[in-house]
């Protein structure tokens, strides 16, 4: 079937019905420099989410799922790819699948901000599975199961994007990492929904929570409120100050003794006796036994059959609430935080 003849477009006419023509510009001077490129930073301190009890309201807020893993920055340069932890440690060789996929991305220079996770059979991020894939805290194993959920783009093809609003950064990121990818680098997709409704659905599906981000904000390092996290279940880092022995429990750990920070001091906030399996308890006991001290670094009251350690290990603890006397309720052990992940101890208000 022959295509219909296309009519030529009408010329743009001025007020006097005369065709308008552009003025010829000057030829570009070949000696004139191109637009300047921004030097690529060696590292950018991450933007951190501020914990809030409820999602913020307003048209400027956009939402994502909260991933439970290790915060990473993927630096793509002509000389190669670097994968840095939140604390600036180079973990490039520990994530071979993410490294290989970063090399395949169609870009010459970039810094991607995101989270390394391991997904369970339901597609939920599982911090314990991630730790096991890396060989536990202090382990040196490479994780071939980890994927990188990219949620921001800080540097792109020679240009620093940190001063640009989030909506523009996301637009460029979505062009680099398409939605729906099943590769080792995937897009953490924005969800267009009411915050309260999204949180309810996230909690019903067993997710950790959601993140709200101000779409008009630049990328600012630190916990300044541009990003907000709302959790289904509370989960924070607490210092391990000892454990109560038990012959009937994994690793001989009946209960971990925990402390939070209050000003410049640590205070006792109770213990946790669930969440362990045989492997995690054995690895934890091995590390704790290298830190044993004669007297507790924190006032725990009278404890029978307790072993005290230096407060150098930070455990991620999931809990439902606090008791009236400042102790954790319904606590469960999730794993040890890495020093490279800048593990912070919960600060009592």
Automatic annotation (TrEMBL):
<feature type="region of interest" description="Disordered">
    <location>
        <begin position="1"/>
        <end position="39"/>
    </location>
</feature>
<keyword id="KW-0436">Ligase</keyword>
<dbReference type="GO" id="GO:0003910">
    <property type="term" value="F:DNA ligase (ATP) activity"/>
</dbReference>
<dbReference type="GO" id="GO:0005524">
    <property type="term" value="F:ATP binding"/>
</dbReference>
<dbReference type="InterPro" id="IPR012340">
    <property type="entry name" value="NA-bd_OB-fold"/>
</dbReference>
<comment type="similarity">
    <text>Belongs to the ATP-dependent DNA ligase family.</text>
</comment>
<dbReference type="GO" id="GO:0006281">
    <property type="term" value="P:DNA repair"/>
</dbReference>
<feature type="domain" description="ATP-dependent DNA ligase family profile">
    <location>
        <begin position="148"/>
        <end position="231"/>
    </location>
</feature>
<dbReference type="Pfam" id="PF01068">
    <property type="entry name" value="DNA_ligase_A_M"/>
</dbReference>
<dbReference type="InterPro" id="IPR012310">
    <property type="entry name" value="DNA_ligase_ATP-dep_cent"/>
</dbReference>
<dbReference type="Pfam" id="PF04679">
    <property type="entry name" value="DNA_ligase_A_C"/>
</dbReference>
<dbReference type="InterPro" id="IPR014146">
    <property type="entry name" value="LigD_ligase_dom"/>
</dbReference>
<dbReference type="InterPro" id="IPR050191">
    <property type="entry name" value="ATP-dep_DNA_ligase"/>
</dbReference>
<protein>
    <recommendedName>
        <fullName>DNA ligase (ATP)</fullName>
        <ecNumber>6.5.1.1</ecNumber>
    </recommendedName>
</protein>
<dbReference type="InterPro" id="IPR012309">
    <property type="entry name" value="DNA_ligase_ATP-dep_C"/>
</dbReference>
<dbReference type="GO" id="GO:0006310">
    <property type="term" value="P:DNA recombination"/>
</dbReference>
């Amino acid at each position: 079937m022959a295509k219909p003849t296309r009519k030529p477009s009408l010329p743009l006419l001025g007020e006097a019905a005369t065709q308008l023509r552009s003025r010829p510009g000057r030829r570009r001077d070949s000696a004139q420099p191109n637009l300047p490129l921004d030097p690529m930073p060696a590292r950018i301190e991450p933007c951190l989410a501020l914990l809030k009890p409820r999602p913020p309201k307003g048209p400027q807020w956009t939402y994502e799922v909260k991933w439970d893993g290790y915060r990473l920055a993927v630096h793509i340069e002509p000389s190669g790819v670097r994968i840095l932890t939140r604390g600036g440690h180079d973990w490039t060789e520990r994530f071979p699948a993410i490294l290989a996929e970063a090399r395949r991305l169609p870009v010459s220079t970039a810094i991607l901000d995101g989270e390394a996770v391991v997904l369970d059979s339901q597609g939920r991020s599982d911090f314990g599975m991630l730790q096991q894939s890396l060989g536990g805290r202090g382990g040196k194993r490479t994780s071939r199961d980890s994927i990188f959920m990219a949620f921001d783009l800080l540097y792109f093809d020679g240009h620093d994007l940190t001063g640009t609003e989030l909506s523009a950064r996301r637009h460029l990121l979505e062009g680099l990492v398409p939605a729906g990818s099943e590769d080792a680098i995937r897009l953490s997709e924005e969800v267009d929904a009411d915050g309260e409704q999204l949180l309810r659905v996230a909690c019903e599906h067993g997710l950790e929570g959601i993140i709200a981000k101000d779409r008009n904000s630049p990328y600012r390092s630190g916990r300044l409120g541009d990003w907000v996290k709302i959790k289904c279940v509370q989960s924070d880092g607490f210092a391990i100050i000892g454990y109560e022995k038990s012959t009937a429990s994994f690793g001989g750990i009946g209960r971990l003794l925990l402390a939070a920070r209050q000003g410049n001091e640590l205070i006792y906030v109770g213990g946790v006796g669930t969440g362990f399996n045989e492997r995690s308890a054995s690895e934890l006991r091995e590390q704790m036994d290298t830190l044993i001290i004669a007297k507790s670094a924190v006032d725990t009251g009278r404890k029978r059959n307790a072993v005290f350690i230096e407060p150098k290990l930070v455990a991620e603890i999931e809990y439902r609430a606090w008791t009236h006397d400042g102790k954790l309720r319904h606590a469960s052990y999730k794993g040890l935080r890495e020093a490279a992940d800048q593990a912070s101890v919960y600060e009592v208000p």
